[in-house]
Amino acid sequence: MTQTAVSGPSQSASSVNRIVWLDVARTVAILSVALNHAIWAVLPNPSVHFLNRLLYASAFSFSRLGVPLFLMITGTLILSKPMNTPQDVERFYKHNLLRLLLTSEIWYAIMFLVIVLPDHSRIEATATIPALIGSFIKNAFFANQITFENMWYIPMILMLYLLMPAAIRINEEASLFKPLILAAMAITFIITFLLPDIFRTASAFGLPFSFSLALSQGNLFSHFWIYIVIGKWIGNGGMNRVPGILIHLGFVLSVVFLVMYQEIIFTTPSWFLIGYECTFILFCSLFLFEEIRRLFSERAEPLALFTLLSKTAFGIFFLHIIIVKFIGWFFPQIAATLPGFIWIPLLWIISVAGSVLIIVPLSRISFCKKYLFLIK
Q: What pTM, to 2 d.p., does this model score?
């Protein structure tokens, strides 16, 4: 593989060596994530009208596919890295884990200052400059963090990266560990996807059905690993023998089930928004990733727009949320006046386009390009 995966929204090598289908997948992923945060900034209540609920369910369903796609890209790229010597492990931690940590800490600092400095109540609450500095330091060490909501992704991907060399070694010995891998995947799917979906759905409909399980992804196997392993499997052509018509059918049906499931949940008294551990999200992202691979894997020439958005995806991931927040802070009357179906697309487009317009000129500065946006 000639592209580099630094994290979910990671960057790649020069345009000469780009993997086009991964550029497309990464572009779809960052657009999905940006839409998710635009929706959360507005968070309209589900309408009593079916068409409005269907529109909202469709938009939110697409917005939940970004993180799974980023993790699948990570699996495709990183699980293919050689990990045969201590030097390979050291190189991975130095060039992948530590670079991601350094860049994340820079953005944690930026977001802390963006949130705290304009908010006099926060400064007054800390009372003293040493207390403010202490809060800043704790923020850098992931304690009592003052940051934006998209930053949950960073500790998660850092923890996965800590175990990635071991995962790569297990993958290299697939024949030896295959029963263990399949068992872990099956148990993880049941515990973190299937059973919670059943319980949440029953609760939403007010059914007197409760069940608790001591096992969880926290003490067994993070459900995000499923997306990474699937990404490696699809990237290696794991679905090559599946006829195209079945892939198309699987994608269409998974989209229909996903959207209709969310729309139906909107009609219940205890409605909720689907998460990344939803079974329908898992299958929809799986088929979407395979659809993208089949459509673009044979293309050698990069696509300009996809290349641009793919290369700037890491910067967009951090910047777009700041733009969304700024718009909400400085233009609250517009947000309160415009209906959600207009304001959400506007926030989405402005936040992505604004991020690119900031990243492109700043990336001409070597430090910004390398450490702020992780563009190689």
A: 0.89
